[in-house]
């Protein structure tokens, strides 16, 4: 069965000839029905996945405990978070993974060499939590490390991969975040595949999230290992961290696609370190980049503004679009390039476009058709995804908007099928 799975070619290049030259190859699962827009959205480095566990056709969505709770977690927090995802309607929007990060396990393995839950904070055990989360229609994620210890010095899974994978599967775990601390100096290319093989051997479909911090450029090799791979160091709840990480992740856009995604780390939306405008930009760019949308705040106690951002169905739809092409920075102007245009193609011949003002003052940002891969004569209707309305039905050659400092505007551009005539 494994050999058959490994021989399935998940990625088929269908290259069309366009006036501008080589065009965007199609992504899998679309049966050749989509036509590429422009070769500026190159995905030629997206590889043939060998993990092939049927997961991550679109980027993962859910919640992770670390950004808000760090080690202050317990089974009550996890249960109440699952409840809140359902009661707020976030689960219905696709946030279905409830992921427990570091500090869930006891400080040492048991007498049989098995991982065990910390008895004071998780007295009922992880299987109990998995059953509870599953009863809500959600999925449970767990954390371990491709090292001797986790980052908080709990037992790691290095050299314990088969046993730990079997244990996770027996508990009903659906997701594994696999960190990079205390790695004994062994290259990640050698440490991460054994857990892939161990997870596959369990027969349970477990999402495999590599948290290698981008140190060995995992986009170059992790498409054959996991469902997502961290391309950056840890995010923190600040404008400087978020913008730096967005730029680092942008470099690897051509390597992402259905089945395997670049991961610039979890969302900080709602944790208090940025303004509403900055959080909205954070969420917009993560959605455009096809980054995992993993909520990092306390969903039991969200403000209305936080909920407004996280529940924007039109922005979520960009992230979950089946074409699966990561959007990227396509143009920058102004001081230090702080007036930016980010864009990416969507299914049904559409484009997602973000005008992002990283300057300290309000400014006008213009997107010319040439940077979007459109002919200048193409007529485009433009829908504002935050105002939830069309702002233009017939734009030609370019589009511009005034954007507040540290804010963005996000749109879907839909070209008319017939371009305006030369007259």
From TrEMBL:
Domain of life according to the entry: Eukaryota
Keywords noted in UniProt: Disulfide bond, Glycosidase, Hydrolase, Signal
Database matches in InterPro entries: Aldolase_TIM, GH, Glyco_hydro_27, Glyco_hydro_27/36_CS, Glyco_hydro_b, Melibiase_C
Catalytic activity: Hydrolysis of terminal, non-reducing alpha-D-galactose residues in alpha-D-galactosides, including galactose oligosaccharides, galactomannans and galactolipids
Domain Alpha galactosidase C-terminal: 336-412
Entry EC no(s): 3.2.1.22
Keyword Signal recorded: yes
GO function term, MF aspect, one: alpha-galactosidase activity
GO biological processes: carbohydrate metabolic process
Position of the signal peptide: 1-21
Family: Belongs to the glycosyl hydrolase 27 family.
Protein name stated in the entry: Alpha-galactosidase
Organism from which the protein derives: Castilleja foliolosa
Organismal lineage: Eukaryota, Viridiplantae, Streptophyta, Embryophyta, Tracheophyta
Gene that specifies this protein: AGAL3_2
